[in-house]
Amino acid sequence: MAEQSTDAPVVTDNEAESRFEVHVGAERAGLIQYQRKGNELSISHTEVDEKFQGMGLAGILARAALDQARARGESVLPYCPYVRSWIGKHPDYVDLVPADRRPAFGL
Predict the structure, then answer these.
(1) What torsion, rounded to 10 degrees, do the Cα atoms 95, 98, 102, 107 define?
(2) Mean pLDDT estimate for the chain
(3) What is the pTM of this model?
(4) Cα 80 from Cα 44, distance rounded (Å)
(5) Residue 77 is part of a domain; what is its CATH number?
(6) How confident is the model at residue 7 (pLDDT cuts 50, 70, 90)?
(7) How far apart are CA 70 and CA 61, in angstroms?
(8) Considering 34, 40, 63, 71, which has the largest number of Cβ atoms within 10 A of its Cβ?
(9) Is the separation of the CB atoms in 20 and 73 below 8 Å?
């Protein structure tokens, strides 16, 4: 069995690649893919490498991406099913999705 790293996860916004990345130690463990257009952040995909599953990294990524969108004054379009579900479980983030678009996302 592979030994799990004890390094704390670190999230960065790799704007050149249009993705938030989470690293554990020196390894990229997961990412959230997005497109930024003006003041709108469209989130399309979340993935965590199988080796790092079960560590809560997808939630850490979602929170970091949404916190940055809030800090930048951006609205969020959660096309990614994971992020959409995460927002549904954390209603204090629903305000990031424009009110007129919430029904389309089931929020």
Answers:
(1) -10
(2) 94
(3) 0.90
(4) 4
(5) 3.40.630.30
(6) confident
(7) 14
(8) 34
(9) no
Token pair, residue 79, equals 């096309």
DSSP structure string for the chain: -PPPP-SPEEEEEEGGGTEEEEEETTEEEEEEEEEEETTEEEEEEEEE-GGGTTSSHHHHHHHHHHHHHHHHT-EEEE-SHHHHHHHHH-GGGGGGS-TTTGGGGT-
Domain that holds residue 42: 9-93
Q: What are residue 27's DSSP bridge partners?
A: 24
Counted domains in the chain? 1
Contacts of 77 (CB under 8 A, 6+ apart): 40, 41, 42, 43, 97, 98, 101, 105
CA atoms within 13 Å, Cβ hemisphere of 96: 29
